[in-house]
Amino acid sequence: MVRRGKIGLFVVAVLVTVPGPTAAQTDTGRRVLDYCLARPDRCALSVRHLTAGWERHWNGDRLEPSGVSDLRLLLAFVEATRDGSLDAGKRVALAEWGKTWVGLDRGALYRAFKRLGNPEDISLDELALVMVADGDRAARDLLRDLMGAAGEGRARRLWPGFHDPVVPYASSRALWAGTPEEPVSARRLLGDRSGVGALGYRDEVTAMTAVLQDPARVGAMREFLCTSLPWEDAPDACVPGTRTSPRQNHALARSFVPETTTRACSAVMAALLQGVGTVGPLAATVSRHLETDLRASSLLQGTFSRLGIVPWDIVPVDAGDARVASFAFFLQATSGGAQVAGCVSASEAPGAVIGNLFEFAEAVLLDATFAAEVQARLPVTTALPDLAPRVVKMKHRVRRSGDKIVLVVDVVNGGAATAAATTRAQVWSSDDRALSDDDTMIQERPVSPIGAGLKKRVRLRGTRLQALRGRFLIITVDADDLVGEADEINNIVFDRVQP
Length: 499
Fold this sequence. Notes:
Blueprint: E1 8-10, H1 23-38, E2 43-49, E3 54-58, E4 64-65, H2 69-82, E5 91-93, H3 94-97, H4 108-115, E6 121-123, H5 124-133, H6 137-158, E7 162-163, H7 169-177, H8 185-192, H9 199-208, H10 215-228, H11 246-255, E8 259-260, H12 262-274, H13 283-290, E9 304-314, E10 323-333, E11 339-348, H14 357-366, H15 368-377, E12 387-397, E13 403-413, E14 423-430, E15 440-447, E16 455-465, E17 472-477, E18 492-496
Antiparallel strand pairs: 1-9, 2-3, 2-11, 4-8, 5-6, 7-8, 9-10, 10-11, 12-13, 13-16, 14-15, 14-17, 17-18
Helix pairs in contact: 1-14, 2-6, 5-6, 7-10, 14-15
């Protein structure tokens, strides 16, 4: 059974006789395929059979929650160290490492801290290692901060189709962990843990989480999370004296986790296996960060010479809740060297499909008849663009002649194909979050074609406007649907002018 909850990419050598696929493995794989085809609203699937030379995608351009975002961040980090924009040997203090840690990481920071020998500081290379090997969210947030906008731009350009949440993972957990007036969440959570280790470790963690002991810093962080995100209904933790319920936590986790398309995900997994494209020069270094020795594992059973998996899921709150999971894989058979790569994202009530995603991958690799069935039953599709506006900067001025507003907006193509048509970016003034006929357009500007993973910056402005304080600015792109996109509902965002 594949263990879930953190990334593990395993590259091993196995020199034993290879068993063929069992009928049970193929039957299990077929159940996954049947489920995806029967429930397109709950499943996205991409398979690349590298040896046979075909690929198929089912909802392959739809954004789905995924754990592969860390892998893309690792690739961007390795690229930055290769071109000299980051020094992999640079060391950062423990307080920097743990500044967003809130204790809700399934012991990841504890495992990393102990495995590295209770260090006084940590290198960027080690941060990348613990991010992936231990699933350390605090390391992930720090690497993103250090690489900045340039690193995110590089990642988006080289590996389009990935969308990170608007706030760091660990910081968003701070909102859900406790009440806004309790800035000592880290100390309380640490004290509640059993088997967390010796007092020395607790002292180290207390030092690392100084940011969470500062009421002003915590208040500012929660203020940002509560007022700047596009909540339809703000979570309970935004109200003093309350905390989010388990059900709200589940809904928040579903909405603010990294997302990707299975097409983009499978492309990265295939490139890692083959060592080609933009991933090629980085593949050996990436594997060094991710390598785990599984030669003694019964999971392999002599079947694979290379195996890489990235499992991830959100555990349901109640028995009837849907479980959300993604599974990225690459496999190479020991006998014959056949190679496949792919990604599956599924949502279901607790059942037998999500738990069998690895068996699906096995059956595609080992059973030629089942692989041919997958090729025949899944449609041949082409990649699509995906345009979305992002507000970079907003300036509002109140003048005697009327209000003035200036917006800097990035129109991002997060899809895997060029948006070939010239479209329009628009900004509207509204009294609510929804665009309607009684709203007023302030300005529109043309947006020329945008390549996959790239962006165009536009400036939208208006003068002599009615009072804007407390009103909503709604920004749209491609309102005329000139570009066929993977996602047609993310072409609109809003920002509120401070009252």
